[in-house]
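FORM 7B: Structural annotation worksheet

SECTION A. Query
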Amino acid sequence: MEIIIQPTPEEAAGIAARIIARLLRDKPGAVLGLATGSTPLRLYQMLAGMKLDWSRVTTFNLDEYIGLPREHPQSYHSFMRENLFRHVNIAPENIHIPDGNAADIPAFCAVYEERIRAAGGIDLQVLGIGGDGHIGFNEPSSSLASRTRIKTLTPQTRRDNARFFGSEQAVPHHVITMGIGTIMEARQNLLLAFGEKKAAAIAGTVEGPVTADNPASVLQFHPSVKVCLDEPAACRLRRADYYRWVFDNKPAWQTW
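SECTION B. Predicted structure
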């Protein structure tokens, strides 16, 4: 796990963008796993501005609310279209986002897993993290071997997302999410976190025990994880000085 601490969210997102840009240049047919929410917004804006070739890229989104029409402004179909897909030359048939209106949710989840396998697996998965350590919508107590499935959101997650919907009552109760086992099969994971509200979850993820109480902590077992943080999100890391020293002394071929 490589911990990358930068002064601002913009600088941390810039490093994440360069990591993804290198992947797309080295592997034009890369498979990306994508996240939504406020955390990756800067990343997607930067990627759109780089004028990369997305024509052979395939994407799989982590999650989607159940019951929201695709055209709803808070659906993740709308989020991805507005914040990334309409700004790049990605082929519509290469975009995969969970269908929160599927007639048979368990059957759809099984098909989603099969589509990921058929695409050759995910090369790089973009992740945010909740204040309670959830990744995707894998809430605390989620199985660390879970696959794509329906999940019930915790009251805290619904409160956190109320700012997007105008009220907590308007936030859906259920979602489809990739499982933790699915996330762990990505060849590389790229986790972004900004702000002091994420500091406790990041400290537990990076330096705490591996536990379902902090689902992101399972990333300690992944062979290739980069964690891009701003200073407030890193403020509770005991070994922050060491992480900065490592980053500042990387060999040239490891930089972006």
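SECTION C. Observations
The chain is about 30% helix and 15% strand. The chain has one domain: 2-221.

SECTION D. Sign-off
Analyst initials: ____
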